[in-house]
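We read letters as residues; the fold follows as tokens. Both lines appear below.
***
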Amino acid sequence: MGKSLKEEFLRLLREDAEFRYAVMGFLGIREIIEHIDKNTEAIKNLQEQVRGLQEQVLENSKATRGLQEQIIKLQEQVRNLQRQVLENSRAIRSLQEQVVKLQEQTRNLQEQVLEHSKRLEEHSKAIRSLQEEIKRLGDKISALGARWGLIAEEVFRNALAKFVQDYFKVAEVKRWTYFDKEGKVFGYPTLIEIDIIIKDNIHHLIEVKSSVDPYDVWAFDRKCNFYREFNKVNVRKIIITCYAEERAKETAKALGVEIIER
């Protein structure tokens, strides 16, 4: 039965044109359907790729916004620096103007001295004495300028004395001194001075400085360790300052030194 059906099918393909065209049309539709299925799958893949690209674009947009925010912050910092530079420039110009005025005053004074020396030859000795006195005054001013750092430091220490007393709730801060003739602390003989407050069986060792750098922290830690070993006591190492460099803070953290900024 199956063989006769096959033969009949083949015969119709050979002899019946209409039947042959119908079979050809059927086969063409199947191919079209297969192409459509393939195209549909390809479209799905493209849609997934598009979604992936859209997600990347969204992530890039977020990253772009983050960069824009950072740029805005940096621009604000630049503006702040520009304002600081402008203020410093104004201060420098003011100092320069003062220097010019002082130079002019000095020149005027020199001219007056010269004129008086010409007119009053008999007073030449007194004038020379006056010139020597002016020179001595200049030397004193130079020496005072060299000592200004020490003077400012002492002024700062005095200003924070009340804060230290209030902070530790004590009446006074004591000063411990010891001459390290063997150079155990810094490698050479020197006088060791530390401010101390003894409270609750703990010796609070205090250093008061207007500004602190890593060396200041290291030197203070050396003195504190020497004090602890010398007196066999528990210590708390504290530096009080109005400004500490970041590297100084890192050094203090590593050495167990507390920094209190006021």
The chain has two domains: 1-120, 157-261. Helices lie at 2-15, 17-119, 124-146, 148-168, 214-231, 246-255. Confidence is low (pLDDT under 50) at residues 134-151. The beta strands are 174-180, 190-199, 202-209, 235-241, 258-261.
